[in-house]
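Let's sit down with a protein and look at its sequence and fold side by side. We need material for that, and I hope you will provide a protein of your own picking. Once you have written the record down, we can walk along the chain together.

***
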Amino acid sequence: MAPQFMRTAPPGRLLLLTAILLVSYLCVAISLPIVPVFVTGSLGLGNVWAGLGVGSAFLSTILTRAHAGRLADDRGAKTAVARGLVFYIAGALASLAAGLLPGQPLAAFAILLAGRLLLGLGESLVAVGVIAWGVGIVGPANSGRVLAMVGAAMYGALAIGGPLGLALLQSVGFAGAMTISALLPALGLLAIWRIPAVAPHPEQERPSFRSVISRIWLHGTIICLQGIGFAAIGAFFALYFRDQHWSHAGLGLTAFGSGFVLMRIFFGHLPDRIGGLPVAIGSLAVEAVGQMLIWSANDPTLALVGAFLTGIGCSMIFPSLGREVVHRVPPHLRGTALGGFSAFQDAAYGLTGPFAGLLADHAGYDSVFLIGGIAAAAGFVIALSLRRRSLAAAA
């Protein structure tokens, strides 16, 4: 019997949009493992600086999620995606300029930081825009599948982009890698014009962003706690392997992304079928186990297994809880709500980098993954509480 995802395949426009997202998101994925290596190696700065270099893009995304959601709701998702891809290109070009100044570390880092901030703004617009566009194509009843496909594209790009970025760094240098990163979203920008836009909702009355957030903040808190594990792998897995003198440092994101994408492909239908909270509860438990395995690993194989399990665990949490969020707001607020919801995950990505850098300096790289495991366990407890509350309300 064919898998569920094959029997309920989404329209071709959604598949095309997902493919465009995968190619464009390589701009983000290529830079993620090589920014800390560039900062600590070529620029000679410390782990805190490396964490700031990675995390600044996510902090930028946090600050612009509300803007991205309003733009998608008012002007249309296609407009949001197009603008986001332009900022991807600008961010990669700024990072390229930083790579041409290795002898001036502070100036290079300042330019790199500007590029990362632009990339973060692009990420905010592209992610919210693609999700709103996808939900507009297939309808809210299939929102879980849309979120699953979008995440599969993004983390599939991470699985490819991790080793690709490190390979490009070795072969063509940081500036060369950033040149290629700038070309990929340019291809996406050309391709999106083939996909018809969905109608915006500019005429509807809109409550404050804070009012929208008040409806979803517990779901957002869970997604924030979940994001710490991925942020730890993205920022410090390669450095952790190098510190342990283990080979295949670039496979951390590949292992994570492989587990992530496999779950999305074969089990992406589960939130729409059995509900978001049951899926999120099981997923958080798996993520916690994966992070603890990385923390306690005494050889690279166990650490990679932990990264793979973390990917499996992280995979379905965002679409599961995102589905709950979509159904808690009216149609004209979906972009705003998804933007606010995503900002909680961005907070985890943005804050984990610098704080984990401080922790790594004082307690070693392995301690970063212990914190990731504890955070996932805390999210598990909150999700259980929401599930009990939901069952009590339905009784």
Remarks:
- Confidence is low (pLDDT under 50) at residues 1-9.
- The CA atoms of residues 31 and 165 lie 6 Å apart.
